[in-house]
Specification:
There is one protein chain. This protein is α/β, with parallel strands linked by helices. It has 2 domains: 176 residues, 3-Layer(aba) Sandwich (D-Maltodextrin-Binding Protein, domain 2); 99 residues, Periplasmic binding protein-like II (D-Maltodextrin-Binding Protein, domain 2), CATH 3.40.190.10. The chain has 13 helices and 14 strands. The strands form 3 sheets. The chain has a 6-stranded mixed beta sheet with strand order 2-1-3-10-4-13. The chain has a 5-stranded mixed beta sheet with strand order 7-6-8-5-9, sandwiched between helices. A 3-stranded mixed beta sheet has the order 11-12-14. Helix 5 crosses helix 9 and helix 11 packs across helix 12. The longest helix is centred in the C-terminal third of the chain and has 16 residues.
Length: 286
């Protein structure tokens, strides 16, 4: 089975068994895993190049037939740190005239668009750009950063001010969403394509597939120290920041609060005309 996975830090616990002994060899016999951006994961699942994908939840509303793999998610119930809106302190969100947007995750941009609705600035244009804060703020009043670039921008916050002398406001999108709606901020879920390989009879999922992904999550969360050591060699971010991010900022269990958060996301996105109406489908296992 072909798996499209996200190459950022935040899904690292979900991928533990696929990357570490003793189960990685057995899983390689059942799955081929490729890593990419969230948007690319969604595209591969939509066009049939993947059977399972860790996809931004907005893709569920635009790709017919997808079902959510139960158990796992990438979500936040407070501050997430890896999804931020950076704007000039001289301008409040309701006065921004343009926003440079990293297009790595369509779902994040939809959350941001709904927040701008609530801030009274629904029509502010989003300008797709590469995730580089300096370059983004040269062309726009604000910037949306997603994933690892957002974490790095927060770490470089003091250096940014010393270099430019410009006071910036760093808004955490998940925290703002929680304040305004009371809902969990759900970024991504594992989803399965409606193929005979995975879904028997169009609705029932092989229990082994479900357990492979849930066990990988559980083993990853039990090995946070090892993940912190691994990832601290890849980014100029303190180990304590990575540990806090994986244990306190990101929530990995697709519980009822996250399911309700997704329902609220789809309901509001449809009300604002951003996404078509969508009824969530979580795959049953046999």
């Amino acid at each position: 089975m072909r798996v499209a996975a996200i190459g950022f830090l935040n899904p690292a616990p979900l991928m533990w068994d696929f990357e570490h002994p003793p189960l990685d060899e057995a899983l390689r016999k059942r799955y081929i895993v490729d890593r990419m951006t969230p948007a690319e994961c969604a595209a591969r699942l939509a066009d049939g190049r993947a059977d399972i994908g860790l996809i931004p939840i907005a893709s569920l509303a635009t790709t017919p037939g997808l079902r959510i793999l139960p158990g796992c998610t990438i979500a936040s119930k407070g501050k997430v740190r890896s999804l931020i809106l950076v704007h000039r302190a001289s301008m409040s969100p309701n006065k921004l005239r343009s926003v440079a947007a990293d297009a790595a995750s369509r779902t994040t941009l939809i959350y941001a668009r709904m927040l701008f609705h609530k801030w009274g600035n629904a029509e502010v244009p989003f300008l797709p750009m590469v995730a580089d804060l300096d370059g983004m703020l040269e062309r726009a009043d604000a910037a949306i950063l997603i994933g690892d670039p957002a974490l790095l921008a927060l770490e470089e916050r003091n250096n940014q001010f010393e270099r430019t002398g410009e006071e910036l406001v760093y808004l955490d999108l998940a925290e703002e969403w929680r304040k305004l709606t009371g809902l969990a901020f759900v970024s991504a879920v594992w989803a399965v394509a409606p193929t005979g390989i995975i879904v028997a009879g169009g609705s029932v999922l092989d229990e082994r597939v479900v357990q492979d992904f849930i066990l990988s999550r559980d083993h990853g969360l039990a090995n946070i120290d090892a993940l912190v050591s691994e990832w601290s060699t890849r980014f100029p971010i303190p180990e304590q920041t990575i540990r806090m991010y994986l244990t306190a900022n990101i929530h990995y269990l697709l519980d009822e609060e996250c399911v309700e958060g997704m329902r609220g996301f789809f309901r509001m996105a449809a009300e604002y005309g951003i996404l078509p109406a969508y009824e969530m489908k979580i795959a049953d296992s046999q």
